[in-house]
């Protein structure tokens, strides 16, 4: 009965939040409809006191953010969520992401309770499911953004040799650093090109090219990029910058090849694990048969 009551309350709250954004259900008041035509027009008019998704997010956002930060630190997540969200160009900010996590953690026990009513496992398993479902839902979303961040760093690392070679070619042909970066950003389709579009946006906001590149390197946190950015910062000092960038591109490509060789070696070693197990198990059985037979003869004598 309690589970059914909690399920009904959760469904009622969800329907209220969803229907609050539907025009025929949450009709704006006359004051809100006339507000855009007044002198002091508010670009974000209110909803006449109705509960909506936006107001719910504003109320629950600080709590979700505080709880999410504590739990992430408790489970050893050291990197800030804002850095990971900015790195993968996520449309969510920290508060919106934490609200999603809190919502998933609240709905997880409801889904678990419905599943328990269907399956009817033992009491211990039911308690573990109800207690572990919120934490599992929270950690799943945390792991998803961490995985996206790691994949983005990997893509930047793999694309960086090609980007560096393109920069060296353009700078050697007479392009300035800003023009070369802008050309790669507009014509590229990879992770580095998307990041460079953001870099050029920061340049248009008033930063210099070296400052915007250092900001990109601090956000992405890739060692190869940390080595490349100081070389690009020599744009106003070095006359043979194209050659320096070409040397750095070869160095980054050697790093990529070294990682590839290490991966191939680890995979070749892992191939022998099932072969070793398949060899040892029959050998142990063949050794166990005469050993048990000798023990039987010794005890019978």
In short:
This protein has helices at residues 2-19, 30-34, 53-74, 81-87, 94-119, 123-172, 177-187, 191-204, 209-220, 223-232, 241-300. The longest helix has 60 residues, at 241-300. Helices cover 78% and strands 0% of the residues.
Percent helix range: over 70%
User: What's the helix-strand series?
Assistant: HHHHHHHHHHH
Largest sheet: none
- Which spans of ≥5 residues are poorly predicted at pLDDT below 50? 41-51
Tell me which oligomeric state these chains represent. single chain
Question: What would your notes on this structure say?
Answer:
Among the domains are: 1-50, no CATH class; 155-255, Receptor-associated Protein (Up-down Bundle). Helix content is 78%, strand content 0%. The relative contact order is 0.06. The protein is flat and about 95 Å long. Mean pLDDT is 81; it is low at 41-51. The chain has 11 helices and no strands.
